[in-house]
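Practice set, problem 2.
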Amino acid sequence: MGGDFHIDVLASKIMNSPKAGPRRLVALAGPPASGKSTLAKALCENLNASDHRTQVVSMDGFHLDNSVLERHGLLPRKGAPETFDLDWFTELVSGLAAGKTLYYPMFDRDRDISIASAGLIDERTETILIEGNYLAYDVAGWRDLLPHWDLSMFLDVPEPQLRNRLLARWKSYGLDDAEAEARAEMSDFPNAARVRKHRLPTTMMI
C-alpha cells in the first residue's frame, strides 16, 4: 500500500460506501506493524481535506494497565487479545455506531500507558476510522465486532517485511539486536501469527 493515488482511491471508496447508522465505521485490521496507524492518519487527512468529517480511534487505547497485566502474569504478552479491555471497547464501538458524542482513551507509546478520556468524538463526525490488530479476529467476543463495520480492510504485509518493521520498532526504543529479537519473539511475532490464522473475511485486502 503506498502512494497518494491509492489513498485517494480508498478515501473515495469510504465516502461512497453505505452506512447502517448515523455514522460510518471503518475497520483497519492487521498484524502489529502492518501500517494501520499510518494508513488511518493518511485517510483521515484526505477525507477531512474533502470536507468529510473523519476521526481516528485506535484500539491500543484499550490496553489494560500494566499493573493489571502484571498481577495476572500477562505483562510479557502485552498486545495479545487477552491484554485488552474488550468489553469497554465493544461498548464504545456500539456508542460510536449510534452517533453519540463520546470520550475515548488513547495510548501513549512513549510512556506505555493508556490515558482515559484523552480523545473526543464529535457528534458531527461522519466517518470513524478504527484501527487495531483484532478488528477482524475470528475468536469469541472479537468476532462480535464485525457487524458494526460498514467497511473493513485487512493490511496484509509479507512476513519478512513485518518482522523487520517489528524489530526496528523495538530498536527505536534503545534495545540492541538481541533485546529487540527477544521482545518481538515474546509477543509481537505470536500476535501477528494469531491475527493471520484467525482472520475473518473483510471488505478489502490491502
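Problem 2, part (b): a different protein.
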Amino acid sequence: MRAYWLFTLVMRRLFVLGLIIGNCVGSGRAAEYRHISLEDLRNVRLPEVALESVKEAGAAEGKGQLKPHVELTGIIGGHIRFELLLPDEWNGRFVMGGGGGFVGTVQNAARYTVNLGYATVGTDTGHQSAEGHMAGWALNDLEAKVNFGYLAVHRTAETAKALIRAYYTKEPERSYFIGCSRGGGQAMMEAQRFPQDFDGIVAGAPAFDWTGLASTMVSIAKVLYPDPAHLETNVVTKEALQKLQAGVLDQCDAQDGLKDGVIQDPAAAHFELAKVPGLTDEQRKAFESIYSGAHNGKGLIYPGFAPAAECVPEQWIAWITGPAPQLLAKDHVPDLTFAFGTQIYKYLIFNDPDWDYSKYDFSNFDKDTRLGASFLNANNPDLGRLKARNGKLIIWHGWADPALPAQGTINYYRHVMERDTQAAAYCRLFMVPGCLHCGGGPGASEVDWLTAIVDWVEHGQAPDKLIASKKENGKVTMTRPVYPYPKVATYKGTGDVNSADSFSVRP
C-alpha cells in the first residue's frame, strides 16, 4: 500500500524525519515505571474507544528495528483509527506524530521515538483511503471532514494519554507533537485549538491554510491546464525547467555572498523572470502563475512559490508542472498540485465531484470557502492560550519546498508577531535554505527538531541557533546554522563552505 505516489513523495520525507527523531541524542531517559499486564490493558474501557489489538512487539537488536514495546491499535468513535506504542523502557514522555496528504492510513512521523523511550501514537484522522492525494472520502460527510480537519488528532491525543495512564499507572510528564506537511498543519491546529494537549509542538512545512493553499494550486492549474479534457501535456517542458533553474541560480545564488547552489534568503533575492533566456511567452506566463499565487478583486488570496523552489526540476514535475504519467494513468491528475487543489475544492469545499476548476475565478472565494475554512484552516494568529499554559511552538519550512509555498508560513508568523510582539518567547519560525518538502534538496535540511523543542520546554533553552546537516551515503557532507526568522546565516567570506563554523548571523 505504501508504494503510492503520495507516500513516495511525502511520506518518504516523513519517514526520514522519523529516522532523524529516532536517532536523536539526549532526548530520552529510560526510567523504571511499573505497568499493568497486557491482559489488564486489554480490559481497559474508555468511552467510545474500541481496542482492536494489544500485543508485544519490537526487537532488541537490528538496524531499523523498534525496541521492545507494546503495540496497541483501536478505533475512536467508530471511525478514528490509531496505533499507540508503549515502550518497555518508558522515559515518562509522550509524543504524537503527524501524517501526510489526506492521510487515510494510520501514520506517525514520530514512530521511531519509541526507541528513545517515548510512548507514541499516530492516527488515520478518521477515514480510510489508499490514495493519500484523493479526497472522495469527504463527499457529503461532514463528520469525516471535521475529524480530518481538527478533531481526530485531539481525540487521539486524549485517548492515548488515557491509555498511557492506565498502562503505566502514571500521567506522562511531558507531551509533544511533531509533524510535517499535513502533520505540520495538524501541529498548528493543536497549538491554536487544543493547546492543552501538548507542552511542545513542532510544525514543519505546515499545510495549515487549506482553502488559501488550494486556491494557489488551482490558479496554477488554470494556466498550465486550461482545458480539463487535455491533461497529458502543457507548455512547461523539462528543458524549460532546466533553463529556469539555471536562470534563478545565475541571478540569485551569489547575492547571498556564496555561489554554492543554495539561495540562503530567497525573500531578499532579486529575480527577474524576463531575463531568463530561452523561454517562450507561454512558459513565462506559466512560471509567473507559479510564483505569483492566487488573487481576486480584493488582492492576494495566498502566495506562490519563491525562487529556489525549482532547484530540483524533477520535484517540480511531480508536484507542480507535470505531467506525471503514473498519476495520469491511475487517477487522471497530471501532478500533485493539481490533485490537491482540485480535490480540496471538489470534496472539502463544494461537495461536487464535477466541479470545473477551469471556470472558477475566485471572485466569491470568501463566501465559497467559509464553511470549509471553519474546520480545515489553522491560520488563527492568536496563540494566547498556548502562551498562557506555557506551551512552546517551533515552526519550520524549507525555502525550496515545491509542495507548499514557504511565504505562506512566513506571512502567518508575521501575523503572530503583529498580534504579540513578544511571541518569540513561545513561538519561533526557522526557514531552512535549500530544503525541499519536509527534507532533502541541495541544502542542509536535517535538524534535530525534537531535541530543540524538548530543551525549550524542559530546560528553558530557547532555540537561538540550530544546526542543519546534509548527508550523502550516511556521512555528513554539509552543516549550516539556521536561526529564528528573520535572521539569516551568512558566509563569513573565509573557511570551509560546508561547515557551519564558516557562517555567522545576519539580523
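Answer key, part (b): The chain has 14 helices and 15 strands. The chain has two domains: 5-208+378-438, 212-375.
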